[in-house]
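RECORD TYPE: inverse folding
INPUT: structure tokens
STRUCTURE:
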């Protein structure tokens, strides 16, 4: 008869997500995960098989986390260009308040792992497809409302905004507040 888990899998997964977010995949040790998750190595392996699978599950947990805590206004049915602009300036405000600096777990992973690991790469691409789709939906609504040209290539603009998000993720780690503010203030100018 299998033993009953004495921990909440969802809760320990979120803790692991934060450790990977802070350190990256390769630099995170099982010992660090044990300490942060407050479970032993045996329990980690019993629930997640290995560090690799735990990392992939952490990337999925990150997507849930950002949907609920970061992109919630952009996922609203009536979101438009105003919400994108607010969102970008909110990122800028978080930089000045010292609440950013780790960047985005998925962008960090793309930089660290790239295409070297197919399963991780697929999860990264799934996340980027989600972001692009979110922007594309907003741009399609903006086109219908007349906020942008009816002839605008929303697919290209969605790719552009995805690139902006990826750049901001890196920028929040290395740029000063003025640079971030300048970047954000220029980001929506090309969308017409």
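DESIGNED SEQUENCE:
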């Amino acid at each position: 008869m299998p033993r009953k888990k004495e921990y909440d899998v969802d809760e320990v997964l979120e803790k692991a997500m934060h450790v990977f977010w802070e350190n990256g995949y390769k630099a995170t040790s099982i010992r660090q995960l044990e300490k942060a998750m407050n479970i032993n190595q045996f329990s980690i392996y019993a629930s997640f098989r290995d560090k690799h699978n735990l990392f992939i599950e952490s990337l999925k947990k990150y997507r849930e986390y950002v949907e609920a805590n970061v992109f919630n206004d952009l996922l609203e049915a009536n979101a438009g260009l105003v919400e994108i602009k607010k969102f970008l300036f909110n990122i800028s405000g978080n930089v000045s308040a010292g609440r950013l600096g780790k960047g985005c777990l998925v962008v960090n992973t793309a930089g660290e792992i790239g295409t070297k690991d197919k399963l991780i790469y697929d999860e990264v691409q799934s996340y980027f497809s989600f972001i692009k789709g979110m922007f594309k939906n907003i741009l399609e609504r903006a086109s219908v409302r007349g906020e942008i040209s009816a002839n605008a290539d929303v697919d290209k603009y969605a790719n552009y905004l995805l690139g902006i998000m990826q750049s901001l993720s890196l920028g929040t780690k290395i740029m000063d507040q003025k640079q971030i503010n300048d970047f954000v203030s220029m980001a929506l100018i090309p969308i017409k």
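NOTES: Residues 118-145 form the longest helix (28 residues).
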